[in-house]
Each structure stands twice: as structure tokens, then as C-alpha cells.
Design a protein that fits this description.
The structure is a single chain. This protein has 495 residues and is α+β, with helices and mostly antiparallel strands. The protein folds into four domains: 131 residues; 51 residues, SH3 type barrels (Roll), CATH 2.30.30; 79 residues, Alpha-Beta Plaits, CATH 3.30.70.100; 165 residues, Jelly Rolls, CATH 2.60.120. The protein is built from 14 helices and 18 strands. It has a five-stranded antiparallel sheet. A four-stranded antiparallel sheet has the order 11-18-13-16. Strands 12-17-14-15 form a four-stranded antiparallel sheet, covered by helices on one side. Helix 1 runs antiparallel to helix 2, helix 3 runs antiparallel to helix 4 and helix 12 packs across helix 13. The radius of gyration is 37 Å and the shape is elongated. The termini are far apart.
């Protein structure tokens, strides 16, 4: 027996079955791992191997190559190769984030071109090589037809060519935030005809022909620098305004940097400042509105003056109503504050001079909904008392989740770590609505504690109970139930 014939018998009788088993096992393992290559291997086994074995048997064993039915089998084999080849390209190339290390991320247009190239190359071979059909006449006809089609579809062809040139120039890729001709958006798709960009307001398809002529600004895929501007009076020094503006971004998760305020210009009646921050472009509209909202309360807290200030009246609103009709003169407000402090249980042990001193040194501050009043891990400025509105205190547990440790209503006292200079707050306090608070500076509270043992005992008792609640919250996995500010011993401080 001819050795070559024996070799083909062994290949077809043993080699193909073994190869089929290996492909089946490999595809099964990859399928369990949800590997994209599993589909391609399964199609090679099921679609390519059977007709290929028949084709080789006809050619090498039966010496049948030119018959029509032999050409039909070869055609079926190449059709199977097309199906499996496209699956292989789908596994090797991706237009999204690669699932596995060896996958190659390519633009959508390259992906489509690669698939089309496989199909066209095999179809050309089948027509000219298998069925021996001359394509010379067809080529001439196609040339004339192509010229006519090119004139009719010059815009479409321009988009196609421009798309290919853009891919080679690579001024941006899918996922980048770009700006062109006044439009901004994130690139979500790029194909042979257009590029699709999307922002929070609209989705737009820009033809590649127009895109190739436009000036493109590519901001990349990460956060970008944005800013808001504000003007304050010359009576407010930049040394006071800039740190206050920098604190404006605290507590906004969408902002990816600390605030960076600077003097923008000096006008005739005011100084203009720019507050810079880094943020994903999609979030900027909402965050910009939030910063402008917070700016009002920051102005009230620090007493800054706008170039054209608006007159407003603010009153204290307490459960006892002691300060509800307080005159809008600063001196009278401090006097009524002394009366209010004497009404709180935690201050009853202080004498008149001590109460008066605390009231004189205290400051009124306003916060808008969502603003941080104190922050976990940072020093408290002093002892806070809630005059109006509601807030909540929370900590972060080991998993980084927020665990509420207290609901703060009117008369609630917090910021107790100010009594220990150098210590940081164990909780974050956030305003649940528009609030007004009294801030008693840390220095004054420390002096009151040092001069009055009973007052010191009240404050220390409250601190110990707060520590217990914080330890409990940080040690559990699920959100703690909100605790009323009037529960247990803490009622002696808050009610």
C-alpha cells in the first residue's frame, strides 16, 4: 500500500476523531469559564471538521476533485470556515473592555472590516478558484458601476474614507469625552459612517466627513477640571475667602479632587474668584447646581458680602420658641442666645457669667440640605447646637458603608470632640434639610469644662455614650437603625 495513502487513512481514521475529542473537551472547559473562544472551537468541531474530512477523503482516497458534487462539498467546507472564522474574530477582537488578557480592543469600524475581509476573501476564492468563474468581465462591469455609484454616494464614501483616516490618526477612542463645534459628549460608538457621542441631555450621530473637518478637543475618559466663579466685596480678604471656597466641595462624592480656589480678577467693586474641581463631565451639571446652592449658605456662615447684597431676615426657631421673635440686631441676638443656652439641660450647671461668655463668643451658621457640618476624621471647630432643621450623624463601617448613629433634631448637641484639642471627630454630620446652628468655639468650651466640674461630667458622659454607639456601628455589616436624639442619657444633653 502506498505510504501516502496509509498516512491519509490514519489521519482520517484516527487524527480527525482525536482532534474532535480534543476540541470538544477544550470547548467544554472554556464554556464553564465563560470564555469567548469556546463558541469558535465548538463551531470548528461541528461545522468545519465533518465537511473537511469528506473533502479530504474525496480528494486523497477517491481521487475525485473536479466533479460538481465535490465542488459543492468544498463550498460547504469554506462556508463553515467563514462561520467559524467570524466567531474566532469575535473572540480575539473586541470593541469593549477586554474580558481576557489576550483580547485586542479595536474600534468598531476595524472590527467590521476584519469580518468583512474574511467573508470577501473566501467568497472570491470560491467563485474563481473552486467554480472557475472568470471575474474579468465582472470586474469591468463593476468598474463602470463603481464610478456611477461613487458619484451618487460621494458623501457616503467620504464618510467611509474619513472614518478610516480617523481610525489611523486615532484622535479619540470609544469612552473618551470630546468636544467639537460646540457639542460635547462621550464617544459610545464609531462605525463606517459616523461617530455617536452621548451626554446627559442628548445623543448625536456625527458623520465622519464632518468630523474629519472639525477641531476636536479630547478630554480623555477620566475626570476633567471644571470651575464656578463668584464675586465678593473687597471687605472680604482672599485669605478668608479662598479656604472657605475650597471647603465647598467637601462631601460631594462626584467630585474627584479637593477644591482649588484662586483669585480670577479684581473688579471695580468686587474680587472675582474661580473654584476649580475635577469631575466626570456627565456629573458636572448637577454638581455645578449643588455648588451654587451651597454657595448661598457659605456666604451666610462666613458673613461674606456680595457686590450687590440682598437684605434678609433670619430668626432662631427652637422648640421653646425663646428666640422666634428675636430682633435682627446682633447684640440682641446674642442676649437671646444666652437665655436659650440656659434652657438646655447640659448648660444648667454653668453660672451667668459662663453662659454670657459662651453666648458672646458663639456664631450662627447656616447649612443647606446635603452639606457636611462636621466630617469624620477632622477636628471639630467647637460644640454645635441645632437651632433649626434636621441632620444625621453617621460613620463608615469596615466595608465602607454609611451607618447612621444619630438623628439630630432641634436642640441636638454634637461636635463634642472639640473638648479634646487635637482629637478628631468620630462621626460625620450632614444636613437633611436647611439648618441653622449655633457654634460655640472649642476654646470657650474647654475653658468652661476646666472651670466647672459638673459641666465637665455632663460632657464626658455624653462623649462616652457616643463612643459606644460609634463602636457598635463600625462593627456591624448592615445599616444601624437610626437612634432618636432623645433616647437614654443623651436626652440630658439634647432635650
Amino acid at each position: 500500500m502506498d505510504k501516502s495513502l496509509l498516512g491519509w487513512l490514519l489521519l482520517l481514521g484516527l487524527g480527525f476523531p482525536l482532534l474532535s475529542i480534543l476540541l470538544s473537551e477544550a470547548a467544554s472547559r472554556l464554556q464553564r469559564q465563560q470564555h469567548p473562544l469556546a463558541v469558535a472551537l465548538r463551531q470548528v468541531r461541528e461545522y468545519v471538521l465533518p465537511p473537511l474530512a469528506v473533502l479530504l477523503a474525496m480528494r486523497q482516497l477517491l481521487s475525485v476533485a473536479g466533479a460538481s458534487w465535490a465542488r459543492l462539498v468544498e463550498t460547504l467546507t469554506w462556508v463553515a470556515v467563514i462561520v467559524a472564522g467570524i466567531s474566532l474574530i469575535n473572540a480575539l477582537l473586541t470593541t469593549k473592555k477586554p474580558q481576557i488578557k489576550w483580547q485586542v480592543r479595536v474600534p468598531n469600524l476595524f472590527f467590521q472590516v476584519a469580518r468583512a475581509s474574511v467573508v470577501l476573501a473566501i467568497v472570491y476564492y470560491l467563485i474563481s478558484g473552486v467554480w472557475n468563474i472568470s471575474l474579468s468581465g465582472l470586474g469591468t462591469g463593476l468598474g463602470v458601476a463603481s464610478a456611477v455609484i461613487a458619484l451618487a454616494l460621494q458623501d457616503t464614501l467620504s464618510n467611509l474614507v474619513s472614518g478610516l483616516l480617523l481610525l489611523f490618526a486615532n484622535p479619540f477612542k470609544t469612552g473618551d469625552w470630546i468636544e467639537l463645534d460646540g457639542n460635547q459628549g462621550r464617544v459610545i460608538e464609531q462605525n463606517w459612517w459616523s461617530v455617536t457621542i452621548e451626554n446627559p441631555f442628548f445623543k448625536i450621530n456625527i458623520p465622519n466627513g464632518e468630523l474629519s473637518k472639525a477641531s476636536i478637543i479630547n478630554y480623555g475618559q477620566g475626570p476633567i477640571w471644571k470651575s464656578i466663579s463668584v464675586s465678593f466685596s473687597y471687605n472680604d480678604s482672599p485669605g478668608a475667602v479662598i479656604p472657605a471656597l475650597n471647603s465647598l466641595v467637601t462631601g460631594i462624592d462626584a467630585i474627584k479632587s479637593e477644591g482649588s480656589a484662586e483669585v480670577s480678577s479684581y473688579g471695580d467693586s468686587s474680587i472675582t474668584y474661580e473654584l476649580w474641581y475635577r469631575i466626570l463631565p456627565e456629573d458636572d451639571e448637577d454638581v455645578s447646581d449643588e455648588l451654587k446652592y451651597r454657595l448661598y449658605y457659605l456666604t451666610q456662615r462666613y458673613g461674606f458680602t456680595m457686590p450687590y447684597p440682598m437684605k434678609a431676615q433670619y430668626g432662631l426657631n427652637t422648640t421653646q420658641g425663646i428666640l422666634s421673635k428675636m430682633p435682627q440686631v446682633a447684640e440682641n441676638r446674642q442676649q437671646d442666645l444666652a437665655t436659650y443656652l440656659r434652657s438646655l439641660p447640659c448648660f444648667v450647671t454653668l453660672n451667668e457669667n459662663e453662659i454670657k461668655n459662651l453666648a458672646e463668643q458663639s456664631r450662627f451658621q447656616s447649612y443647606g440640605k446635603g452639606e457636611l457640618i462636621i466630617q469624620e476624621g477632622k477636628e471639630d471647630q467647637g460644640l454645635y447646637i441645632m437651632l433649626k432643621g434636621r441632620g444625621e450623624a453617621y460613620v463608615k463601617d469596615e466595608q465602607g458603608h454609611h451607618q447612621i448613629v444619630d438623628q439630630l433634631g432641634i436642640n441636638a448637641v454634637f461636635g463634642e470632640m472639640a473638648t479634646f484639642p487635637g482629637e478628631v471627630s468620630p462621626v460625620t454630620v450632614i444636613a437633611n434639610e436647611d439648618v441653622e446652628i449655633v457654634l460655640i468655639p472649642a476654646k470657650e468650651i474647654v475653658e468652661a469644662i476646666e472651670s466647672n466640674e459638673k459641666f465637665a461630667s455632663e460632657i464626658l458622659e455624653y462623649i462616652e455614650e457616643r463612643k459606644k454607639i460609634v463602636k457598635l456601628a463600625t462593627g456591624i455589616k448592615h445599616e444601624a437603625s437610626p437612634r432618636s436624639s432623645n433616647n437614654g442619657r443623651r436626652g440630658k444633653v439634647r432635650s
